[in-house]
């Protein structure tokens, strides 16, 4: 099978659009349609159902999809292995970072990385962790630095990880801040400012309240922790935030219920890392070592 035709097929699927796929691959729309048609003719079956306005895979297209990704991964691995100077750290490095990691961890890594490897061009995207996993599935980055999921697919590989301890907090003028030893039942009387229900943080906190048979009253969910911090600091409710975000605008609520999450750097299993990725991971492991 022609790798360019497979790439066209995958890009059409990932973008859910012939025109957007053509733009990404720097082709005309007729050209990318021609590549898909050639692949379908070679395989003797249609891969994409063109009878709907939205891109829909046929049964054959769904069966081909994982194999197409593996084939292109192996071509990528061959190119890495056959690089003329395997020790050189250069080229473009595409990475994704969650907003929290981008604000509180990434600056130290990149400062060192750019000083040591100025010949590497970094293409950086910021997004929520769930979106980062999806972009990694589409091979739109080589590494992603995210909150690690307790239900991570085996197609991902963790290359670095570190704990991110969290604390129950309230604004300094919030009624909870005046309690010497608040307990979960005290928190149940006030609004909770937490990330979306799909996040690991929400699941941990929700489980604590469920086990204590207490009502959790979440308000205005957002996955932007800086926004949660601002809303908490002005007294709109209590929250659970990473310890490194706590400052004079917040009061730690000394509740004997430890909450933590794990952050880390992930790649795709079966897809070799470039020297630039390996160099960055080495810095990350040094910076985040306990």
Brief write-up:
With 290 residues, the chain is of the alpha/beta class. β1 (48-49) and β2 form a beta hairpin.
Overall description:
This protein is of the alpha/beta class and 290 residues long. Helices cover 42% and strands 20% of the residues. It is built from 11 helices and 10 strands. Strands 3, 4, 5, 6, 7, 8, 9 and 10 form an 8-stranded mixed beta sheet that branches. A two-stranded antiparallel ribbon has the order 1-2. A hairpin with a 6-residue loop joins strand 1 and strand 2 (56-57). The longest helix is centred in the N-terminal third of the chain and has 23 residues, at 59-81. The radius of gyration is 23 Å and the shape is globular.
Helical stretch count? 11
Largest sheet: 8 strands, mixed
Structural class: alpha/beta
Assign a percent range to the helix content: 40-55%
Principal-axis shape: globular
The mean pLDDT is 91
List keywords for this structure.
11 helices; 290 residues; two-stranded antiparallel sheet; eight-stranded mixed β-sheet; alpha/beta; globular; single chain
Secondary structure elements and their pairing?
Layout: H1 3-15, H2 18-24, H3 29-43, E1 48-49, E2 56-57, H4 59-81, E3 91-97, H5 99-104, H6 106-116, E4 120-126, H7 129-137, E5 143-147, E6 156-171, H8 184-187, E7 192-193, H9 200-211, H10 225-233, E8 238-242, E9 250-252, E10 259-268, H11 275-287
Parallel strand pairs: 3-4, 3-5, 7-8
Antiparallel strand pairs: 1-2, 5-10, 6-8, 6-9, 6-10
């Amino acid at each position: 099978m022609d790798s360019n035709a497979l790439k066209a097929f995958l890009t059409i699927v990932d973008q859910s659009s012939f025109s957007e796929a053509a733009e990404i691959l720097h082709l005309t729309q007729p050209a990318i349609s021609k590549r898909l048609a050639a692949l379908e003719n070679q395989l003797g079956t249609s891969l994409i159902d063109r009878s709907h306005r939205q891109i829909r895979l046929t049964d054959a297209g769904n069966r081909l999809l994982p194999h197409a990704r593996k084939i292109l991964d192996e071509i990528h691995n061959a190119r890495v292995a056959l690089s003329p100077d395997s020790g050189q750290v250069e080229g473009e490095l595409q990475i994704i970072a969650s907003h929290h990691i981008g604000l509180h961890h990434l600056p130290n890594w990149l400062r060192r990385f750019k000083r040591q490897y100025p010949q590497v061009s970094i293409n950086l995207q910021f997004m929520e962790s769930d979106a980062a996993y999806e972009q990694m599935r589409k091979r739109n980055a080589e590494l992603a630095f995210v909150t690690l999921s307790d239900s991570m697919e085996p197609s991902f590989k963790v290359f670095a990880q570190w704990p991110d301890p969290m604390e129950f907090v309230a604004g300094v003028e919030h009624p909870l801040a005046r309690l010497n030893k608040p307990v979960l039942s005290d928190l149940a009387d006030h609004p909770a400012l937490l990330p979306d229900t799909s996040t690991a943080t929400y699941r941990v906190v929700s489980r604590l309240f469920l086990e204590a048979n207490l009502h959790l009253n979440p308000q205005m969910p957002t996955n932007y922790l800086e926004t949660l911090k601002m809303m908490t600091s002005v007294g709109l409710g209590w929250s659970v935030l990473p310890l490194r975000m706590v400052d004079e605008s917040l009061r730690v609520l000394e509740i004997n219920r430890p909450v933590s999450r794990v952050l880390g750097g992930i790649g795709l299993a079966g897809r070799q890392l470039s020297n630039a990725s390996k160099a960055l991971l080495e810095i990350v492991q040094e910076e985040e070592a306990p």
